[in-house]
Design a protein that fits this description.
The complex is a heterodimer of chains A (about 800) and B (about 180).
Chain A: H1 3-30, H2 32-74, E1 81-84, E2 89-90, H3 98-107, E3 111-112, E4 121-125, E5 128-132, E6 136-138, E7 141-143, E8 147-153, E9 156-162, E10 171-172, E11 177-181, E12 187-189, H4 199-209, H5 221-234, H6 244-253, H7 260-276, H8 279-289, E13 291-295, E14 298-301, H9 302-311, H10 320-329, H11 342-358, H12 364-372, H13 389-400, H14 405-410, E15 414-417, H15 421-441, E16 450-456, E17 463-467, H16 479-482, E18 485-486, H17 492-500, E19 511-514, E20 519-520, E21 526-527, E22 538-541, H18 542-547, H19 551-561, H20 563-573, E23 591-592, H21 594-605, E24 609-610, E25 616-620, E26 626-629, E27 635-636, H22 640-656, H23 663-666, E28 673-678, E29 684-690, E30 695-701, H24 716-726, E31 740-746, E32 760-766, H25 776-780, H26 782-790
Parallel strand pairs in A: 1-15, 3-4, 12-14
Antiparallel strand pairs in A: 1-11, 2-10, 4-5, 5-8, 6-7, 8-9, 13-14, 15-25, 16-17, 16-30, 18-23, 19-22, 20-21, 24-27, 25-26, 28-29, 29-30, 31-32
Helix pairs in contact in A: 1-2, 2-7, 4-10, 4-11, 6-7, 6-8, 10-11, 11-12, 15-24, 17-19, 17-20, 17-22
Chain B: H1 2-19, H2 50-57, H3 60-66, H4 72-86, H5 90-103, H6 108-120, H7 124-137, H8 142-158, H9 162-175
Helix pairs in contact in B: 1-6, 1-8, 4-5, 5-6, 6-7, 6-8, 7-8, 8-9
The chains are: A alpha+beta (about 800), B mainly alpha (about 180).
Chain lengths: ~800, ~180
Amino acid sequence: MAQRPRGRRRQPTRKKSKSRKTTTTRKSSRKQRRTRRRKGSLWRWLAGLLVLGVVTLGGYTLYLSHQVRVAFEGKRWAVPARVYARPLELYEGAALTPAQLRHELQILGYRKVRCPGAGAQWSGGGRHYRVRTRAFHFWDGEQPPLTLDIRLADGQVSRLTDGQGRPLDIVRLEPAEIGSIYPTHREDRVLVRREDLPDSLVQALLAVEDRRFFEHHGIDPRGIARALWNNLRAGGVVQGGSTLTQQLVKNFFLTPERSLWRKFNEALMALIVEARYSKDEILEAYANEVYLGQDGARAIHGFGLASYFYFNRPLQELRLHETALLAGLVKGASYYNPRRHPDRALKRRNLVLEQMQKLGFITAAQARRAKAQPLGVTGKGHGQQHRYPAFIQLVRRQLARDYREEDLTSEGLRIFTTLDPWVQKIAVDGVARELARIEKSRRLRAGILQAAMVIVSPQGGEVTALIGGRKAGVSGFNRALDARRPVGSLVKPAVYLTALARPRRFTLATLIEDKPVRLELPNGDLWTPQNFDHKLHGRVPLHRALAQSLNLATVNLGLELRLEPVIQTLHELGVDKKIRPYPSLLLGAIPMAPVEVAQIYQTLAAGGFRAPLRAIREVLDADGQPLQRYPLEVRQVVDPVPAFLLTSNLQEVVQAGTANGLKSYLGRDFAVAGKTGTTNDLRDSWFAGFGGDRVAVVWVGRDDNKPTGLTGSRGALPVFGRVMRDLHLAPLDPLPPTGVRYYWVEESTGLLSAEGCEGAIQLPFAEGSEPKRRSRCAASGTAGLLERLFGG
Amino acid sequence: MTALRFAPLIAIAALLAACGSPYPIQQRPAPVEPAGGISRASPPSAQTPAEVEVRAYEPPARVATVRRPASPAVRRLIRTAVEKRRAGDYQAAQASLERALRIEPRNARLWNRLAHLYAEQGQYARVESLAAKSNALAPNDPILQADNWSLIAGAREAMGDRRGAAEARRRARLVQ
């Protein structure tokens, strides 16, 4: 920026000297005597001008030289933070299907070969795989390339050995890169060093852009002459005479304006750059600066990133025909865009290969083989699909608490997250298919439904997948984080948990009143909630009221408990924001985002231990040094006993309640807990649930908040069911904590009963809270006798 | 003063964490999970109700060996954690235990070890929750429970909660 004002100041000086010269000539023809007398002073004057010119030019050169130094040495490329998925852990017994392993190898850009020798290759299929990994710098150190022999059986790793057949306890594949956090000017790059540049790439660049690069001093008169000649012959610009150095200077320091003055500056700066820096340094800078493509708003800079962008592989793993394509793109990344204009790109690539052969870099046979290869660019939905905008947004928000924006976008941080790409893929597919199916079967306009889903690990609170909308690969409104909708009956477990934490008053068998509610609100309105079926159910056991999601029983229960303790429970379960004490909160008139609901259900799934949801595990700086760890944290917020009682009640919701439909996805006796949620006029359809290894929350609704006609069990539940089935959810197996005992009770009366008695069911109780009075059957029959003899 | 009083506990904790005494490393177990089926097996740390009965008749020292041992992968990660801790790299030790916990999230001993690591570093606020979590996952393991309660007692004491510490100590004695 600072150069131009200086330039303007100089130009007039030059013009002045020229005009002075011409006037002087004219005068001299007319008055020779006077001229002769003044000749000496003119020469002196000219000499003065020359000195002035040299001094000015020298000064300007010095100034430019300073500019170059500042830019070259002071400039550290803005290297966006790179974000990685979780690494896949391999060990005997790890849950892993062939499809999942192949998916992982595919997103890692591993090549299938006959016999894996070099890194990032694999062979095999079916149940037996052999994989050669890449070296990777993990948070806790470097893992060298390994050869792995993996056998799968029954959805698990059945045997894991190294190349020589020695058993391995546990190995990680390197994590897939899932995105980067680039700055607002949208330049993305993966920094490469000179030694990372494959020879074939350098040769290809030389062949088509600057064949005398290693000989010239920044500008190449022969190159210019050749370009000029070729352009004249062709009658247009077909070839540029710019050296790589000039191109670098152009990208690096100058604005895109085209003028002679700029050309002059460019040439001068190129000379300065060449004088100051080695060819290798220049090449390295060039390789990181050059523009090679566009991905929406994201500009692809440098060969490092371009290699991932087009081939989903690091630069060092590219083969001749691939490096030739990248070198060919320098001339015009959008014109030769291999995805949009494959024919042009192929021609350009083959031209590069021909030039390489002509200059003797490759043999005719090599050129022929490379030219026979397809472009090899990953499909549109491929390398790009591995960007997970919704999840990255969550990562960004968590990082924003600890890092400045400019550090994230420029310091080359490496961020290791909790995302499981396989879980994400299954969830994305499940949401898309299930919504389409629902729309079809309910005769809704295709595409009208929207959805969000959050999947977390129950004990650690790690977010393994996050879906912000139906089109998961497109960034946009992130419903999982930002769509705050009333949660409806998803709030009810908090009411029942509050009750179950008072074992002297409430047990799962306590009869509560499902009777009409008429409440005058502070603003004078009358609140008269209804049951979903608009019926009254009278006295119902507490567990059944939750299983059937009875509104009136819940409101009566909540009013007896009072609102404050219920709100307190919600806060303990993980709701951060203030909750206003309106009675309608008992029926879920609290707007929450799916991710907030996921926190609540994580706490329930972990038996009352809240683990703040995390998307990040570790952060490394650009040199691979650990910067920060986000450790596993838990806090016990609910006593284990009521938490266990509630969990068993939530299992009943699935076994014999509103979430009964899950059975058609997970099987009749599959142990899973969950709760449906539906809001007024069927606007929001919710489901939250958990099995042994996952907690998930699903929201289905419309962006315009109009009714969908779907209850929780019709909209969100099928999505949950399908995704959990496809992920092979582990069954729930809660551990009864100390202080829980099972008793037979009579369902209708809540009295102690016995096995075999009519209407008897077995329920868990906090020790001492079981009913003391016996039902008639229990008191009389043999069951009652046994009961009396052995004391239950 | 409090630090001094805490010292023996730390020593015991260090011993426990270092030599893994409540967690004897055994030979590799025969596979216990039934193979196959549509539904996945429950996490290996799940306990069978049978353990309750066993406990009543066995001397306490044997109880720990009755339970299903951790997988080779988890044992390897525990070894790494022990090595890192010995080298003074607590962060790496924690990371290794967390990695193990992702594999066996309901392994009460892993939570206990993690609690010990934090206790050694004086991060008492975390100790109590981790030890409580370990307890919740080991309702039938009195030795582990006692150790967890001692951890909690030490943490409470270090944080100035004497009454809470005394209560925890009482619980530690009670479970044995």
